């Protein structure tokens, strides 16, 4: 039986070599990137049986996405569509240090996912899974994507599947007021909420520190678990009235994109293995640390590597 099902858009990420600009480079690295598939890969690499649901054009680019995710152990559940009627979204990532910073340019309008409907997807996978995960990016893509997100969360709930949601606010997709209304409409269908502290403050208009934010959200919306991430300050989680805290593991940062998704993937994978909240936080944090050491969106790691981070081992593998 599939343990984890995720749903959302995956794009092709196009990146020039470090130190080069998009307007002058002659080379672009091509990789898959999308919040929900990032989580799927992170969990699959740690031994979880994972299915990722989405809609893609039946084209070389759509198949490129599927092939890459399959190579990491993710089973795709795809609604294929005519490539003449839709397209695959892409995004361009130009790495830059201070003072320039990193720049992200999206080209995702009219992507296949924007027309997705529940009955196009293998929703029986959701109903049979132990856990269903999606993010706040997907309902921002279109009305159809928002309706499908709600429908899948409802079907998961009806089947007794644990449901998680990462707020994952994107200012290039919608404004905070519109996003908050959409998120709060979904909250009744969510068991575990992941929310960056900055998004809780900016989008949900929450005040106080991470602990206060977690208590406030759990009280108002009756979540089973609230995980508030705090960047380099680590994360806190509230579950069954108890609060748990986890520091970050030290890591060199080659590419920070996908770090939050790696955290979620590690957290869910450990919960599905029967780990308690403190263990899930440790696995999430260690997976996120390892992700920062690799280029691309995906946490390409192993259980042994994550365990070594948790155990405090480091150095050269001999």
Give the domain tally.
1
Percent in strands: 15-25%
Broad CATH class: Alpha Beta
Strand order of the largest sheet: 5-4-1-8-9-10-11-12-13
CATH superfamily: Ribokinase
SS content category = alpha/beta
- Backbone shape: globular
| Computed CA radius of gyration, to the nearest angstrom | 19 Å
Which H/E pattern describes the elements? EEEHEHEEEHEHEHEHHEEEHHH
> Mean pLDDT, as a whole number?
95
Instruction: Identify the CATH architecture.
Output: 3-Layer(aba) Sandwich
Tally the helices: what do you get?
Answer: 10
Distance between the termini: 37 Å
Helix content: 25-40%
For this structure, the CATH topology is: UDP-N-acetylmuramoyl-L-alanine:D-glutamate ligase
Beta strand count: 13
Poorly predicted parts:
none
Largest sheet: 9 strands, mixed
Domain Carbohydrate kinase PfkB: 1-297
Protein name: PfkB domain protein
Keywords: Kinase, Transferase
InterPro entries: Carb_kinase_PfkB-like, KDG_KDGal_kin_Halo, PfkB_dom, Ribokinase-like
Report on the structure:
By secondary structure, the chain is α/β, with parallel strands linked by helices. It has a single domain, classed as UDP-N-acetylmuramoyl-L-alanine:D-glutamate ligase, CATH 3.40.1190. It is 34% helix and 22% strand. The chain is built from ten helices and 13 strands. The protein has helices spanning 35-45, 60-70, 124-128, 143-158, 176-186, 197-202, 210-221, 259-272, 277-291, 303-310, and strands at residues 4-7, 11-15, 29-33, 50-57, 74-81, 90-94, 103-107, 131-135, 162-166, 192-196, 225-229, 235-239, 242-246. The strands form two sheets. The chain has a nine-stranded mixed sheet, with helices on both faces. A four-stranded mixed sheet has the order 3-2-6-7. Strand 11 and strand 12 form a beta hairpin. This is PfkB domain protein. Keywords: Kinase, Transferase. Belongs to the carbohydrate kinase PfkB family.
């Amino acid at each position: 039986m599939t343990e984890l099902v995720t749903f959302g858009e995956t794009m092709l990420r196009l990146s020039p070599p470090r130190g080069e600009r998009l307007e002058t480079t002659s080379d672009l690295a091509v990789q898959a990137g999308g919040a929900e598939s990032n989580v799927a890969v992170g969990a699959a690499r740690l031994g979880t049986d994972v299915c990722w649901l989405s809609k893609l054009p039946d084209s070389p680019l759509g198949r490129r996405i599927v092939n890459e995710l399959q190579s990491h152990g993710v089973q795709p559940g795809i609604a294929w569509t005519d490539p003449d009627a839709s397209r695959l979204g892409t995004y361009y990532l130009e790495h830059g240090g201070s003072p320039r910073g990193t720049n992200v340019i999206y080209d995702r309008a009219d992507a296949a996912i924007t027309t997705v409907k529940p009955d196009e997807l293998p929703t029986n996978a959701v109903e049979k899974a132990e856990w269903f995960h999606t993010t706040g990016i997907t309902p921002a893509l279109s009305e159809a994507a928002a309706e499908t997100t709600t429908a899948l969360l409802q079907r998961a709930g009806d089947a007794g599947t644990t449901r998680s949601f990462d707020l994952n606010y994107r200012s290039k997709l919608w404004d905070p007021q519109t996003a908050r209304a959409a998120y709060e409409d979904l909250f009744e269908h969510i068991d575990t909420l992941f929310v960056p502290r900055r998004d809780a403050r900016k989008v949900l208009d929450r005040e106080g520190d991470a602990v206060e934010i977690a208590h406030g959200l759990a009280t108002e919306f009756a979540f089973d678990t609230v995980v508030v991430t705090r960047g380099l300050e680590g994360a806190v989680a509230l579950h069954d009235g108890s609060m748990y805290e986890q520091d970050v593991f030290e890591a060199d940062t080659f590419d920070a994109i996908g770090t939050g998704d790696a955290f979620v993937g590690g957290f869910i994978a450990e919960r599905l293995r029967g780990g308690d909240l403190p263990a899930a936080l440790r696995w999430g944090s260690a997976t996120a640390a390892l992700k920062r050491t690799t280029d691309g969106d995906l946490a390409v790691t192993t259980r042994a590597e994550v365990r070594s981070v948790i155990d405090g081992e480091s150095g050269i593998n001999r």
